[in-house]
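Per reviewer request, we include the raw input and output of the structure prediction for the construct analysed in the revised manuscript.
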Amino acid sequence: MLTLKYIKEFKTLSRLALPIIVGQLGVILMGVLDNIMIGQLIDKNALAAASLGNALSYLIGSLAFGGIPVVAPLFAQREGKEKVLTLQISFEAVIILSVFLTLFSVLVYFVFGIFDQPVFLEKPAKSYFLLITVSNIPMFMFLVFKQLLDSTNKAGVSMWITFIGLGANGVLNYFLITGVGNVKGLDLDGAGIATILTRVLMLVLIYYFIPLNIRRELTGGVFANIRLHSDRIIFQLKMILYAGVQVFFEIGAFAFAVIMMGWISSTALAAHQIAVNIAAVMYMMATGVAYAAGIRVGNSLIKTNALDTRIVGSVSFLLVFIMMLISAVGIIIFKSQLVSLYIDDLEVQNFAIRLLIVAAFFQVSDGVQAVALGCLRGLTDVKVPALLTFIAYWVISLPVGYFLAFKLGLEAEGIWYGLLIGLSIAAILLVYRFYSLLSKREKIAIT
């Protein structure tokens, strides 16, 4: 009987996760497409500048990108008017957060020189950073609507919108980077503007797929009762920030790795961007499972059955383990072909291949820690995981990476070995946290 429950959950989770995974792949493929077109249509220095601009923008934005998915389990636990109210409050919280993140990004723009990057990279990286920061605002709003649709088994809508955006991004990239007729191309800035236009398009499309009654209440209700709902808005902001901090620490580790790569060379920086981009495609598959797991854990809490929650968690870990193991093998087999898609520069290609081999080894750890965070979000456990990720990435991963790279002379590979160690420790700590919480719930249920 128990085995049948596991099989049933595996099927349910897979059906829920598949469109979310495809949608997540669509999101990351925009970044892949950007990097391929920047590398092929411009040069390796533009790719290195894009790497720096993207890393810093995503680092700041990760507080929202990583935190917004926490609202999906909240939607899953609510019905009717309460679901609509939760959407309003989520939207208000995200708008407030967007304002603060944008203001902070503007401050970073004016002090960009503190990152001590090569002069020829700093100017284009600054400009690209600002454009991507602007594009994050419509993307945050898109993600709130996406969580609502995903939690109501309508993940296919956001999936198709994402792929429409992918196509639009490719066309806009080409014309804005290279130019049209006598109109000169904008090079790297063109790619940034294309991202802004694409994300606005995606927001408009998903808005019209939200049920009409919800749109009406949302349009007239956002900030209309802010005083009445201030406690819930603050609570939602805290939830988003705590969950976002978990992702911030991981993304921050990778962003600081970018800065350290800049201390080595522009070739190392470009190679790092390629390797991270390829690894990120596989990581997005894991986040699709993580979001689905968070929703399923949230659903299981309604039944107040700790065993159901344990089954959801175990099946989620098994599914992501299989997926990431396959992706690791794929990276090792096709590493040369994957790298050659981005750039023709042989020096950068060889550099990136060495980093990809390390990336293959941390695929499983990366996937498992992502799903563990998703399961913990479903339990609305966000504070302790934030501390655990800080320890794994900033207390252990980055210092070890720095030591290996600059003290032992391993350079770029040393930085990536540090990331491998951090991801593995995070996976162990977060999985342990999930099962220890379940054990406590089971003991309470028995008594």
